[in-house]
Specification:
The protein has 432 residues and is α+β, with helices and mostly antiparallel strands. The protein is built from 12 helices and 11 strands.
Length: 432
């Protein structure tokens, strides 16, 4: 499935017999989601040696309510009555170049609600929120050869136990603040931040987000400083410290650059990185802005891309395995998108093997035009070179004046490339 870039069993099989075989493979108890996840993480781990990487985690739901009547082994999602699964990946980027290196953590599960359970009295290991620590632990192991790891997450990951257990000499956390915490030296966090002086004002180009934000240049006021957060009274874990020292970063948009009635940008961040200058604080904010890439990953996984929620497999275990494969395809699409302008310098071998690279070279002449504007501008050792070809296969016209190809175009291109490559490989085998 990873080679054919689809979740439709009929397309994967090519014929009825092979379709049935693949369905049986997904149902086989000896094929586990854990094993498939391990293979994906191992592949990413091979690419991170001596790099500083950003490991971005988030949760998404896979809603299968449309055919829940015929599917066993699902849990509750969304409104608490729909049936489906949850997925929590850790997407990994090179901090210096922005290149996508793959997945360094992944959890897929079916939520089983327990009535009258007093969650606030439970240790974190027994809560669903433990996924943030669990997948962070996976990433630390998968990325053990990296020079530095910065784990990035949104508000749900602002968990005291995570601040206490995950960071080490080379593993840092960068998380959006969820709540107004009590400080160890008395007082509250938000008041401390608001009372601190502005240390920098700078401009940032903000891209458009449909129905949420217009594209504009935002003027941002920056504050930062060290704080010591107090252990919450409800924390039940043993061995937790009474307080933890962190850097708080506050960045908020000045009224003069806010567009119309839109909400101004305002991020409060915690990080274990030592921040001593405005430049370092701005760098941390830029790293946090990369969290948007995991949203692109989910977009490619769902209706606009692989449409994984349309799969009609009849058991949750099979759907979990399919989801593990599908998220890897979505990550490959994102790798091509982020490499498309050649700025990351990522090698083509991070995504394609040598036979696929040879076939891409053959296809290139078919998709290049006669004029320089329609030539592939990248060298064939770069992933950008392959990204250009895959985008052309996916329907992009190739002109610099055209909008750059996005993840859905890349997915179409990868899907068609995989089918053409399969036919070319079969022909070569028959003629050998």
């Amino acid at each position: 499935m990873r080679s054919l870039k689809t979740v439709c069993l009929r397309r994967l099989g090519g014929d009825r017999a092979t379709e049935v075989k693949f369905g049986r493979w997904l149902r086989n108890a000896k094929v586990t989601a854990t094993e498939l996840i391990g293979q994906a993480l191992q592949k990413t781990g091979a690419l991170v040696e001596n790099r500083h990487v950003l490991a971005i985690q988030d949760t998404t739901e896979l809603n299968y309510q449309a055919h829940a009547q015929r599917t066993a082994g699902l849990g509750t999602v969304g409104n608490g009555s729909d049936k489906g699964l949850f997925m929590h990946p850790m997407l990994t980027l090179d901090a210096a170049t922005g290149a996508c290196l793959g997945l360094s953590g992944l959890k897929v599960w079916a939520r089983q609600r327990e009535e009258n359970r007093q969650h606030w009295k439970l240790p974190v290991e027994e809560k669903e929120s433990y996924r943030w620590l669990e997948v962070a632990g996976q990433a630390k192991e998968a990325l053990c050869t990296a020079a530095m790891v910065t784990i990035i997450a949104d508000r749900e990951s602002d968990i005291y136990e995570e601040w206490a257990r995950i960071p080490d000499a080379k593993t840092h956390l960068l998380t959006r603040i969820c709540r107004d915490r009590a400080l160890a030296d008395a007082g509250k966090l938000y008041a401390r931040i608001d009372q601190s002086p502005v240390q920098d004002i700078y401009a940032v180009a903000v891209p458009a987000r449909p129905k949420k934000r217009s594209a504009h240049t935002a003027q941002l006021a920056l504050r930062f400083g060290r704080v010591s957060i107090k252990r919450p009274g409800k924390c039940k874990g043993a061995g937790l410290p009474g307080s933890i020292g962190l850097t708080a970063i506050d960045v908020r948009e000045l009224p003069g650059s806010v567009v119309g009635g839109e909400d101004p940008i305002h991020w409060r961040l915690f990080t274990t990185h030592r921040i001593e200058t405005a430049a370092q604080a701005r760098q941390a904010v830029d790293w946090y802005r990369q969290r948007w890439q995991v949203e692109q990953l989910f977009r490619t996984l769902k209706k606009q891309g692989l449409d994984i929620e349309s799969s009609q497999l009849e058991h949750g275990d099979s759907l979990m395995k399919l989801a593990v494969l599908a998220i890897q395809v979505a990550a490959a699409c994102l790798q091509l998108v982020l490499a498309r302008d050649g700025q990351t310098g990522q090698p083509v071998s991070d995504v394609f093997d040598q036979k696929q690279i040879a076939f891409l070279s053959i296809l290139l002449s078919h998709y290049e035009g006669r004029t320089e504007k329609q030539k592939n501008p990248y060298g064939n050792g770069q992933l950008a070179w392959a990204s250009w070809i895959i985008a052309r296969i996916g329907g992009w016209k190739g002109y610099p004046s055209e909008s750059p190809p996005g993840p859905i175009t890349m997915l179409r291109g990868l899907r068609d490339f995989a089918m053409i490559y399969k036919g070319w490989s079969l022909q070569n085998e028959m003629c050998a």
